[in-house]
């Protein structure tokens, strides 16, 4: 499972305050994961992006991921960008910041372990070893820094399966050391509609026999975990194992609506666009892929890896990017008005950077179709 598949991952890259763009790098240049803490509480990635962009004069937030106190992982910068977080060492590093000042919740620690594991399982990043997971103060020139506020030998031991962390047994959550179901039912009461829908779908799809009461009780938790196991959505010990989040609901809705009408199946792990098209009986020639790409809004198709990945997502309906946290667009609202309304820089340069480097809309020139694609991406 790659990091994009984590159920607690939320793609907020388009919602960061930006003064410009960070330099690009290839994934082969990446060797390490650097851990940080925010020295603050109750904040999120957008708050940090304001400090970094406005106070430090950086292009935007320096980290690639931010882990909130409830375990949510915010995806704040594309991994192929060189962030600012460990001076004079940044080019090969992925920066991960946990909100807190030397004290972190169990949910954060579980999500930290999930994220590191998923990064190391991502194609192109599997060169990173656990020994390459380091704290800010373990890099040259930063030995006196108090960041990341945790003993990294302990952190690496947990990643290897030693004592502590989610690998040592059923985790507890929150200040009251509650059970998983109790903590999340209280913490995420705003998701009651999601719980209710998941119960209804589990009853229809899996014949789970659940009370449809919108409460994440033990029966719903167990049924969701069985579903996660069956469809490899989350794994035992992961922070969101048993929570009916976006990935769970998407799969349940897909199965509930499967009427044999011929919708394309999901791609297999590691399957490329050519093998996928061959498997479903579609012409995989370059000319046909080019025609399909252009019909799906991928302009100037030349068969690059990023274009093929995007085409595979569109043809199979298996997009992997985390759900945007931005509000929906109003009826008739254009991209510039939408970005202005939610407080984003709507300049052409920023739209071009977001389109090409965050959302895979190649050769952005501000056409109506490109702007519509960008609006759909930003507004979720």
From TrEMBL:
Record region (Disordered): 156-179, 253-272
GO molecular function: N-acetylmuramoyl-L-alanine amidase activity; zinc ion binding
Pfam family of the protein (one): Amidase_2
Superkingdom of source: Bacteria
Domain Peptidoglycan recognition protein family intervals: 19-138
Domain N-acetylmuramoyl-L-alanine amidase: 15-149
GO biological process terms on file: peptidoglycan catabolic process
Entry coiled-coil feature ranges: none
Protein name, per record: Autolysin
Source organism: Salicibibacter kimchii
Taxonomic lineage of the native organism: Bacteria, Bacillati, Bacillota, Bacilli, Bacillales
């Amino acid at each position: 499972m790659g990091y994009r598949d984590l159920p607690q991952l939320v793609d907020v890259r388009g919602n960061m305050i930006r003064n410009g763009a960070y330099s690009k790098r290839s994934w082969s240049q990446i060797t390490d994961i650097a851990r940080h803490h925010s020295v603050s509480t109750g904040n999120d990635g957008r708050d940090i992006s304001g400090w970094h962009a406005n106070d430090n004069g950086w292009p935007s937030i320096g980290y690639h991921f931010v882990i909130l106190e409830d375990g949510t992982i915010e995806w704040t910068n594309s991994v192929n960008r060189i962030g600012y977080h460990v001076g004079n060492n940044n080019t090969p590093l992925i920066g991960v910041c946990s909100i807190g000042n030397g004290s972190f919740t169990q949910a954060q620690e579980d999500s930290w372990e999930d994220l590191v594991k998923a990064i190391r399982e991502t194609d192109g990043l599997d060169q990173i070893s656990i020994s390459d997971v380091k704290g800010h103060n373990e890099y040259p020139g930063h030995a006196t820094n108090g960041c990341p506020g945790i003993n990294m030998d302990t952190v690496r031991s947990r990643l290897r399966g030693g004592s502590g962390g989610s690998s040592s047994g059923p985790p507890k959550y929150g200040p009251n050391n509650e059970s998983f179901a109790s903590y999340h039912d209280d913490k995420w009461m705003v998701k009651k509609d999601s719980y209710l829908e998941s119960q209804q779908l589990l009853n229809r799809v899996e014949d789970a026999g659940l009370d449809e009461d919108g409460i994440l009780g033990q029966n719903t938790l167990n049924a969701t975990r069985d579903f996660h196991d069956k469809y490899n959505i989350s794994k035992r010990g992961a922070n969101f194992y048993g929570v009916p989040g976006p990935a769970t609901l998407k799969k349940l809705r897909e199965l509930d609506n499967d009427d044999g009408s011929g919708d394309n199946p999901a791609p297999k792990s590691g399957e490329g666009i050519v093998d996928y098209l061959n498997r479903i009986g579609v012409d995989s020639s370059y000319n046909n892929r080019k025609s399909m790409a252009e019909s799906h809004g991928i302009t100037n198709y030349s068969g690059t890896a990023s274009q093929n990945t995007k085409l595979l997502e569109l043809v199979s309906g298996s997009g992997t990017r985390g759900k945007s946290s931005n509000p929906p667009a109003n009826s008739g609202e254009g991209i510039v008005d939408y970005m202005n309304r939610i407080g984003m820089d709507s300049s052409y340069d920023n739209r071009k950077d977001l389109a090409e480097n965050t959302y895979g809309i190649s050769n952005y020139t501000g056409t109506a179709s490109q702007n519509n694609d960008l609006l759909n991406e930003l507004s979720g």
